[in-house]
Amino acid sequence: MSSTEQGTSSAAPAEPTTAPESAAAPEVPESFYYVHGKDKVVHKVSAGALQHSALIHGMISNLGYTEEQAKANPFPFENIDGDILQMVVDWCNQHKGKPTPPEDTNLPKQKEKLFDLVLAVNYLEIKELLTYCCKQVAMMVKGKSPEEIREIWMIPTDAEDEAAEKEAKKRAGKEAAGETAAAAGDAK
Amino acid sequence: MPFPILQIPFDVRSEIISLLRPNEIVTASFSSKNFKRLIKKQYQRPSKLKFDVHIGYKGLIGNCQGIVLSAEHISELSEKAHEIICTNGYKRGFSSKFPVLYFENRVMGTKMIIDYVTDLFGTCIDELYVDRNGIWAIDWINSRQSKPLACLFLVKADNGDPIADEEAEYVLSEGQWINCDNLMNVDATVFAVHNSRLTDSELNAFLRHWRSGGSPRLEVLDMNFEREVLVPAWFDPELEIVETDEVRRDGSEMEIQGGFSIQRMDGVNATIVCDLGQFCMVVWHSDGH
Question: A160 and A124 in one domain?
């Protein structure tokens, strides 16, 4: 299992870089947790950054892990692609302890990743990031005609919907007939 | 890059749809029948969402954020024919911000866009702006929704109307556009008339009608006149209108200083402010409007 730290690709976990603090501020030791996605690459993330995720924050609160236990038991998110989890971790780090601005310029620009990002962010319950993603999806159809919206959002036409409905009915009919025949066979 | 909106969880889709502006919601609803049904289920309508209808030579429905759908006469279509989609009984185009539907019959087209938008958003029409050709819409809208129109604005026909009939122009020039009967029969809370040609005796007749309990929901009657002279001398003494120096304000931002006071038989007061070519009557209902 390889690991990365806060979006870098170093193989071994290293101490995270922290925001500079004023000399007068007391040093508070920051706790870290570890997460990995489908690619098994482990990301080390501070508890402060993970607070954005209601799901992970809840898990941390319930488990009460020590640093060693956390390192030994990274949270597995097998349903999230590695690059998507990396995006999420980067966003959480960038917005750690900061009020989230109304418009986020740090959102990933790759539109092809937006669908997977929305699913991941929704699963991880990161409300602010989900709102930004939703805004980006809504922006996709600004000034577009109904036909353009249909293409952008992959909405089937009425004819396609009707064909799909017919096909589903045909399939359901066949399945029902099969079940009836099987039941009749069992009865014999 | 396409985004398969139908494959994302219900709550997320609902949030995306609710982020769209009303004109974008209407536009998206034309992409398919199923998607229209989905919008109706998943759009979280803001409680203050209200629509206005403008009926002139075009039918327009929109709100403070802009027009959401338009009905135009088929004769407007020729230059844009290549962008037109033929669908159930009408042709549809797109104006860069909202869909435009084309009809042979302007009344039918206007009714259709009102039905479409109010059904899609599950709301009613709040304000109506009509010229002489749209008078039919007052009763039609009031009869199809439980909440009556809040505001009604009667406006002069648009000079740019390419199919304005001669009769309409005649009626306007003869000053029979908004007559006293119209004024008495329109059951609106806010009623604005521009370029009115009502006479002094017709205004007195309306005030007698109001004083004896007519137009009970009226809150504001705001009129301006083509003639410049409008002085208090025309008040019928039987109306017992008296000059006042009171400063009154309603629940919103409206403030009236001075003017004339008139009392309805049931005790409700109204203030009338007259100026050159202007007549404004504000009714002080006991619930503060």
Answer: no
- Nearest CB to A151 within list B2, B7, B20: B2
Of B73, B71, B72, B91, nearest to B82 by C-alpha is B91
- Of A86, A88, A98, A90, residue with least CA distance to A19: A98
On whether residue A84 sits in a domain, the answer given is yes
Which tens digit of pLDDT belongs to each residue from B115-170? 999 999 999 999 998 887 788 898 899 889 988 888 888 776 665 554 444 433 33
Q: Which of A134, A150, A161 lies closest to B19 in CB terms?
A: A134
Contact yes or no for A146 and B94 at CB 8 A: yes
The model's pLDDT over A43-61, given as tens digits with 9 standing for 90+, comes to 988 888 988 999 988 888 8
Tell me if chain B has a CB within 8 Å of the CB of A123.
Answer: no
Mutate to test the interface with A, among B26, B32, B101, B120 (most CBs of A within 10 A): B32
For residues A161 and A70, membership in a common domain is answered with no
Whether residues A67 and A104 share a domain: the answer is yes
CATH number at residue A59: 3.30.710.10
- Got the DSSP string for A66-115? -HHHHHHSPEE-TTS-HHHHHHHHHHHHHTTTSPPPSS-TTS---GGGHH
- Pull the structure tokens for residue B92: 């549809």
- Chain A hits for B28, CB-CB cut-off 8 Å, are 141, 146, 149, 153
- Is pTM beyond 0.95? Reply is no
Helices B106-121 and B136-144 meet at what angle, rounded to 10? Answer: 30
Residue of chain A minimizing CA distance to B8: A119
B160 Cβ under 8 Å from any chain A Cβ: no
Asked if the structure places residue A55 within a domain, the reply is: yes
B1 to A114: CB separation less than 8 angstroms, yes or no: yes
Domain count, chain A: 2
A76, A131: one domain: yes
Interface size A-B, in CB pairs within 8 Å, comes to: 91
Range of the domain at A65: 3-15+28-149
Query: What is the ipTM, given to two decimal places?
Result: 0.77
User: Does residue A20 sit within a domain?
Assistant: no
Name the closest residue on chain A to residue B29, using Cα atoms.
A146
Report the mean per-residue pLDDT for chain B: 83
In a domain, A23, yes or no: no
